[in-house]
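Board notes (copied after class):
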Amino acid sequence: MKGAGAIRQKLKQVRWRHLKARIEERLRQAPGNCRYNGTVEHVNGDDPVHICMYGASDPATWRAVVCDSRHGGDALAEKCPLFVHCKSKDEIKAEFRAELASMTLPQIAFHYPDLAALTWVLDGDPVDDDDDEVGTVPPTPASVPEPVPSPPAAVIQLALPLPVVGSPAKATFLGWLRTVFSWSF
């Protein structure tokens, strides 16, 4: 049978693995991880579309580019020179620690069953938050620029005119975007 020290060490390793996966996911160059990614919501309840809000403060020069994972935004975000991460590595670590600290054991069991099992074996004893003892967090990519102030509004609500029967405006919201902005996706 393993001793309490070995179980604590395993718990640290498992927490580190979950933290590392969270950091890698959030520092990936994807549309949802960009500070400039905003949402355009359709007033009729259709799925919102994510667009690049960089330069939205100046409508005359703003290029509202669709940057949505459902519409090829992953490839666009990977090559985007304007990409800025929403959160730093330290912010992600703090968020993860706060999330775990605020969860009850059943909540931890739902999201992280391996952590819950090890915590239960230790009778719920807390483990140090010193995750860096187990390994080193992968460095953030060198191409990440310094944080830039957030764009003004991340969500835009558009009030579209009601479509006339038989008109092209009856098309989906994405069709409307194609028509009005000459976008292709």
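Comment from the instructor: The beta strands are 37-42, 49-52, 155-158. Helices lie at 4-26, 73-79, 89-102, 105-111, 113-121, 173-181.
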